[in-house]
Amino acid sequence: MASDVRPFLKMNGLGNDFVVWDARQKPLQLAKDQIAQLGDRGHGIGFDQMITVERSAYGVDAFMRIHNCDGSQVDACGNATRCIGRLLMEEAGKDMVTIETNAGLLHAFDADGPRTVTVDMGVPRLEWDQIPLAEEFADTRAIELQIGPIDEPILHTPAVVNMGNPHAIFWVDDVEAYDLARVGPLLEHHPIFPEGANISLAHVFDENQIRLKVWERGAGLTLACGTAACATAVAAVRDNKAGRKTTIHLPGGPIDIEWRESDGHVLMTGLTEIEFEGEVDLATLSWRRTEDGDVPVEAGAAS
């Protein structure tokens, strides 16, 4: 089989890491098992999501296709949108770009700092059938869901929000007091979530300061999840736990969220990083690093 060597970028937003392909001139098609092989941190490049930048059918700056590291395709990824926004703004010399996603059109803005990007994530969806849930709940601020014994559940009554993908947020006193790697997969695939869900543990530790730990649908434990941060900020406002401007503290670092009262849009602002440039032989899926980015990493190693 003839080799097809394609360049890629390894990027991250607060540690939420991506392999980014530019497929605007030459289409890229990888099977689910090929994506999973590249996403494997032990044997492949290693990433949370694979991002393919394509031409937009709507004529905006680009279309962003998102696959999780297990090969499944998802509609939204806030941190990836910030990373792709940075690339497109630097490429075009603009301070705002529009990115088409399966969740709609998103606008990215140059924020305060050379690597800091704000993304308008749009309006959260809050009705039970928009999450979606398998049964009707009049109030999605705290649905009837628990894990563990009925009289002494481990986790219970999460808030649910859709920020382009479904999220369940459990308010706890200590995000480290629970084995999210164990309960995350059970809750992600709970029958109440027909499309699965991202599972978060959240704790308000100071005024408008929230600590967050996330089990990401199709990706597992992650250092950061932008849509989870947005969903948590929205849930906090709805439950009078925080104001409309909050800082969400993820394992990978802080991210600023504003749920704007004027139009209901959620704005997310945080750092982006280019880790390195590389190339993959698509015939064999062998890869190598070719050039350092913003953050030096060990040659040939997955981050």
UniProtKB/TrEMBL annotation:
Protein name stated in the entry:
Diaminopimelate epimerase
- Say if the entry is tagged with keyword Aminoacyl-tRNA synthetase: no
Membership in a protein family: Belongs to the diaminopimelate epimerase family.
- Specify whether Ligase is a keyword of the entry: no
Q: Which organism's genome codes for this protein?
A: Roseibium denhamense
Where in or outside the cell it occurs: the entry states: Cytoplasm
Q: Where is the active site?
A: C77 (proton donor), C77, C225 (proton acceptor)
What are its E.C. numbers?
5.1.1.7
SUPFAM superfamilies referenced in this protein's UniProt entry, alphabetically: Diaminopimelate epimerase-like (SSF54506)
Name the catalysed reactions.
(2S,6S)-2,6-diaminopimelate = meso-2,6-diaminopimelate
Q: Which InterPro entries does the UniProt entry name for this protein?
A: DAP_epimerase_AS, DAP_epimerase_DapF
Quaternary structure (record): Homodimer.
Keywords, ordered alphabetically: Amino-acid biosynthesis, Cytoplasm, Isomerase, Lysine biosynthesis
What is the recorded function of this protein according to its Swiss-Prot or TrEMBL entry? Answer: Catalyzes the stereoinversion of LL-2,6-diaminopimelate (L,L-DAP) to meso-diaminopimelate (meso-DAP), a precursor of L-lysine and an essential component of the bacterial peptidoglycan.
Transmembrane ranges?
none
Residues the UniProt record annotates as site (Could be important to modulate the pK values of the two catalytic cysteine residues):
H167, E216
One Pfam family name is DAP_epimerase
Per the record, the pathway is: Amino-acid biosynthesis; L-lysine biosynthesis via DAP pathway; DL-2,6-diaminopimelate from LL-2,6-diaminopimelate: step 1/1
Instruction: Provide the binding site for substrate.
Output: N16, Q49, N68, G78, N79, N165, N198, E216, R217, G226, T227
Indicate where this protein is primarily found.
Answer: cytoplasm
